[in-house]
Design goal:
With 591 residues, the chain is an alpha/beta fold. Helices cover 48% and strands 11% of the residues. The chain has helices spanning 18-31, 35-46, 55-69, 73-78, 83-98, 104-111, 113-121, 127-153, 160-172, 212-215, 237-248, 301-304, 309-312, 318-325, 332-335, 337-343, 351-373, 378-390, 396-421, 475-487, 524-542, 555-564, 570-587, and strands at residues 3-7, 181-183, 189-191, 202-207, 251-257, 425-435, 441-452, 457-464, 496-504, 518-520. This is DUF2800 domain-containing protein.
């Protein structure tokens, strides 16, 4: 059916351009030797429909990368038996090799050649998608040509990495790159918003999303279709009524209103006739494209069957336990455990993560060298890691900010650390493994153990860079897990953990004082209860019983919701449901 359509769109928000932007950023990162950053774009590239990807093959590739290549997606692409994936890898390597020397436009067209072909082939079935992609490519070329023209006037030549840097800068600072669509066909159906229809008239008007929640306060973004009818973010009732009046008075002869859900518009109650329209699911077009990450969700029995819990999950860590057992509405915590904990898509390097790694390494070296060299080695060690901070491959302003954080840590926490390790046998980056009574394999790295061999006691010190006003969920469980891990390990048989805490290594900016550590205690009953939870979670992991949705249909959930009514604080309400969920897991191990 011919149609006319006009939409203002920003290049960075264009759904059809996300794969192209990921390709350009991946190529640029590879050209600069930034393998970690380049890998973070690979999941989006691998699953892209226009590059031949689909849901099952994306999951299969992700699992292969984890099993055979320890999560190294670049190596998995290089050694893949899949012709499509291998061609993508070869293309990325070739484009990266040319990025710093080849003219921008020819290289850009080679990179998007496959996407161009895809949208050209599907323009009959999806003309709007093809139009959106073409508008995005035109906007990208216009932007690149404008930047290259400016550079030429200054006697410089830009290459693809320069254009990508300028794109990233534009996105960072909120500069819009216009990729608007304007399709006009005489006599065609016109697609427009209510706001844009002011002053126009049509023989027939079909108004979609004509339900009360979309047009009035209380609409919380839960419409089955995007809410593109209103421009204002806050929907004042009078404004909504005026705009509704505009929309329904555009029709000269015929007006039909459609709603996919919700109740009829209150203003039209009693004035219109309603009827239900039934349709088979396979007859409906997909209204909203799935976000690319959804291509790695194991949401069917066939995809879950690709997992082998006995080989894909060899042990249970504190992080894995928290990911499974920390309740989220809809029990999404356990349902998406395979994607979070097993598939594990590569992510872009962050300065926070790399800074934390450097700080942990410095503390380890300080503690280990204290016994041999004493405090005289500290200045030398600090100088070495100060240099590592300055070499971080991030924006200069960010590196400067983290350098300042490093100096504050050296002034405040290092003296505290030196003082508190005296008199103990120190075990740094302790690699601990043990079994629960029921045989669940546990594993974890502990930052620092202060061991008193005479008294057979251990103190657990867990470093935390950064700080927040609230203790993150799961910290209590994590520290108790560490206590169980130490006391059940062969290395510390007969020892008792007397204290365990998360120590914030950065002082308050204003006072220069360290924050008190977050510490917790646990008696034998607490540890026994935790062990029951661990065994129940492990049983579900071993049997692939990720779906714990039955909890929300249980009496335990109903009682928890009833108990919440007596609480005012959000945290207290969450704790009630969390406690009920853990008890339910223990009683329903999924065997």
């Amino acid at each position: 059916m011919p149609f006319s359509y006009r939409e203002r769109q920003n290049l960075f928000a264009s759904e059809r351009m996300q794969t192209t932007l990921a390709l350009l950023r991946c190529v640029t990162a590879l050209a600069r030797g930034q393998k970690g950053l380049a890998s973070s774009y690979l999941p989006q590239i691998i699953c892209a429909t226009e590059l031949g990807g689909n849901h099952p093959s994306s999951v299969a590739f992700a699992l292969n990368a984890k099993r055979e290549h320890r999560g190294d997606w670049m190596a998995a692409m290089h050694e893949s038996d899949n012709v499509r994936v291998k061609e993508l890898y070869d293309g990325l390597m070739q484009w990266a090799a040319e990025a710093s020397t080849s003219p921008v436009r020819p290289l850009l067209f080679r990179i998007v050649e496959r996407s161009l072909g895809y949208y050209q082939d599907c323009k009959e079935q999806n003309p709007l998608g093809a139009a959106e992609f073409n508008a995005g490519i035109r906007a990208l070329l216009t932007f690149a040509e404008g930047e290259m023209g400016d550079a030429r006037r200054m006697g410089r030549a830009l290459r693809l990495p320069d254009i990508v840097d300028k794109l990233d800068a534009a996105q960072k600072f909120g500069v819009s790159i216009d990729a608007s669509i304007d399709l006009g066909t005489p006599g065609a159906v016109r697609l427009t918003s209510a706001h844009s229809s002011k002053g126009l008239e049509f023989d027939c008007v079909y108004l979609i999303d004509a339900d009360d929640s979309t047009w009035h306060k209380g609409a919380g973004g839960m419409s089955l279709y995007p809410s593109n009818l209103l421009i204002r973010e806050e929907k004042d009732d009078d404004d909504a009524r005026r705009l509704l009046f505009v929309a329904i008075t555009r029709a000269k002869r015929h007006l039909e209103l459609y709603r996919a859900g919700g109740s009829a518009l209150q203003e039209l109650t009693g004035l219109i006739d309603s009827c239900e329209v039934s349709a088979e699911a396979d007859q409906l077009s997909i209204a909203i494209e799935t976000e690319w990450r959804d291509n790695y969700v194991l949401d069917t029995p066939e995809l879950r069957a690709l997992l082998d819990p006995h080989t894909d999950v060899k042990f249970l860590s504190a992080t894995a336990l928290n990911n499974f057992a920390t309740y989220e509405p809809g029990c999404a915590n356990s349902l998406h455990f395979p994607e979070k904990q097993i598939v594990r898509l590569p992510t872009a390097p962050t300065i926070q993560t790399e800074f934390g790694t450097i700080i942990h390494a410095m503390f380890e070296e300080i503690v280990n060298r204290m016994e041999a060299d004493g405090e005289t080695a500290i200045e030398t060690i600090e100088a070495e890691y100060r240099q590592q901070i300055s070499w971080l491959d991030f924006a200069p302003e960010d590196v400067h900010r983290y350098s300042e954080r490093f100096e504050r840590i050296c002034r405040a926490f290092v003296p505290w650390l030196v003082e508190h390790v005296h008199g103990y046998r120190c075990v740094t980056e302790a690699n601990m493994q043990c079994l629960t009574t029921e045989g669940t394999p546990l594993f974890g790295f502990l930052d620092l153990l202060l061991v008193d061999d005479a008294a057979k006691t251990v103190q657990i010190v867990d470093y935390k860079t950064g700080f927040g006003k609230e203790v993150p969920a799961g910290y209590h469980r994590q520290l108790k897990f560490y206590k169980l891990l130490v006391e059940a390990s062969p290395e510390f048989y007969g020892y008792t953990v007397t204290s365990m805490g998360d120590y914030y290594v950065e002082p308050d900016k204003t006072t220069g004082e360290l924050r008190p550590p977050f510490a917790t205690t646990a008696n034998a009953d607490d540890i026994a209860e935790l062990e029951q939870l661990i065994d129940a979670v492990w049983s579900r992991i071993e049997h692939g019983a990720w779906d714990t949705g039955a909890f929300e249909q249980s009496d335990a959930h109903e009682l928890a919701i009833e108990e919440q009514k007596s609480c005012r604080k959000k945290a207290d309400k969450a704790e009630i449901v969390q406690r009920a969920y853990e008890h339910w897991l223990v009683e329903n191990p999924g065997m």
